[in-house]
Amino acid sequence: MLPQRVEVDAKTSQLTSDQDLARRVAEGDLGAFEMLYNRHSRRVYSLCLRMTSNQAEAEDLTQEVFIQLYRRISSYRGEAAFTTWLHRLTVNQVLMRFRKRNVRFEATTEDGELPVVAEHDIPKSMPIVDQIALDRAVSQLPTGYRTVFILHDVEGYEHEEVARMLGITVGTSKSQLHKARLKLRKILTSKGVVS
Amino acid sequence: MNCSDCQELLSGFIDNELSVVDRENVRTHLSKCSHCESVYQDLSQIVCLSRNLPEVGVGSHLWAEIERKITPQRVTLWDLVWSYRLNLSIGLPQVLVAAMVFMGLGLVATFAYRPYISSQNLLSSASSGRNILTTTALMNVMKPEEAEIQNSIDRLTKTVQQKQGRWDPSLQSVFQRNLGIVDRSIQESQQLVRNNPDDHIAYEMMMLAYKEKLRLLEQFANLQK
Known about the structure:
heterodimer, A: mainly alpha, 9 helices, elongated, B: mainly alpha, about 80% helix
C-alpha cells in the first residue's frame, strides 16, 4: 500500500542521521540522496533565493549545490556537522556565481556612501514589520548589503567569517551590515508597510 | 553624543560589540532622545525578525532535474571492474597479443616523440594533472599536507599515464570524464582558497577534492594489476 510505504519511508528518513545517509549515498544509494535532498533542499533554496533575489538563478544554484554534494559526498568524513558543511557549500556556490558576475563586496554599492541619518528622513516609528515584508525588502537591497545582511543576520555567521568568505575586512563587514539594516528600515517605511 | 553619532553605533549596540564607554554613551542618549530610541527599536525588530525568516518551498521539478544530471555521471568501481572483465572475455591470448602490440607502439611513440612530449609536459596537461613547472612553483606556496598529497597525485598520474594506453576507449572515456569533474572541483576550491587564504573550510574542501582525485587515480592505477 502506497500510503504505508510513504509513512515508513518518512519515518526512516526521520530516524536516519545525515551522516548515515551521506555514507549510504557514498555507497551509491540514490534513495538516501533523495532523502537528504528532501531534508535540506528548502533551506538550501531559501538561502540561494535570498542571496540572489532571483528564482531561476536560485533554482539553478540549488541544482549545482546538490550535484556538487553528490560528487563530493564520498569525501565527507563527518568532521564538521553535515548541515554546516552543506550550508558552507551553498554559500560558496553563490559567492562563486557572484564573482563570475564581478560583484564587488568591498566597494560601496549603488546606494553610495553611508546613509547619513538626518532627522527629517527618519520616520517616527516602525511598529510592525512582518516577515514577508522583510523578506521582500531584503530582496531589494543592493547585492553587497544583501550578502552581508543574509550571512550575518539571517544565517548567523560572525563578522570574522563573513569577512573571510567575502574577502573584505571585518570593519567593512560591520559597516555594510549597518548600512543594510538602515536601508531595510528605509525600504519598509517608504513602501508603507509600516505606519 | 549627537543623534548622528548615536545612530552610527546602533548596530554595534544591538550586536553587543561596543566598548563599555560607547555602550554607556549610546544608552544615555537613547534614554533622552525618543527619535533615536525609535530607530533603535526598528533596527532591533529587523534583526530579531531576520533570525527567523521562513524557508521557501522549492519546485518539485528540481529533484527530477538533479536526478537526471547525476545518474549518468556516477561511475562505481564495479562499473570499472565490469568493464575490465568484458575486456578479458574476448580471450586471454588475444588480450596478450593486443597488449604487446600496444606496448610496442607505445614504446615507438615514446621514443619517436620524446622531445615533443617533454615540451608539452612543461606547458600544460589540461585534465590529466599538473605540469612540472606549475607543480614545482606551487610546492613553494603549498602547505606541507597539500604538497604531500600533490606529490602522491603526481606519482599516481604517471603510473596511470603509463597504463592508460592499454585501456579500451570506453574506459578511457570514463576515466577522462571523472578526472575532468574532480579537476574542476579542485580548481574551484583552489580559487576559493586563493581568495580567502584563512578560510579553513574552503581549505578543507580543497583537500577533500585532492583526496577524491587521489582515490580516483588509485582505482585506475590498480585496475590493471
